[in-house]
Design a protein that fits this description.
About 10% of the residues lie in helices and about 45% in strands. The protein is mainly β.
Length: about 120
């Protein structure tokens, strides 16, 4: 079955004339190295990160299909061009996109003071 159009009914999703706003609460963990009882110990603490995704519902003016562009390098170049089409002065922030099924390891948490990720293998 193919569905051409649908709408999400949720308190976290709002529709405007040209955009869809979605709120997401991402639950993760933070790994900290703290002194307790005279010695440093590792602690894993829960952490909530709030995201707001905004999707433009207007149809773009032009679409190009790049046949034979190449898997990794071509898609990375294309994503970079799309991400930076706002100009050099626009500050780009990292976002939460990716796939756990393609990862060789999984994040246990983040040491926020050092901005260092801690991972364990699948």
């Amino acid at each position: 079955m193919f569905i051409e159009s649908f709408k999400v009914e949720s308190p976290n999703v709002k529709y405007t004339e040209n955009e869809i706003h979605s709120l997401c609460n991402y639950e993760t963990t933070e790994l900290v190295h703290e002194p307790r009882n005279g010695a440093y110990q590792w602690f894993v603490k829960p952490k909530n990160v709030h995201y707001e995704f905004i999707a433009d519902t207007r149809d773009p003016k032009l679409g190009v299909m790049l046949v034979g562009w190449g898997g990794n390098n071509g898609s990375t170049l294309t994503a970079g061009v799309i991400a930076n089409r706002g100009g050099k002065d626009k500050i780009q922030q990292a976002n939460y996109f990716g796939s756990l099924t393609q990862a060789s390891d999984h994040s246990m948490g983040l040491r926020y003071l050092l901005l260092l990720g801690v991972y364990f293998p699948w």
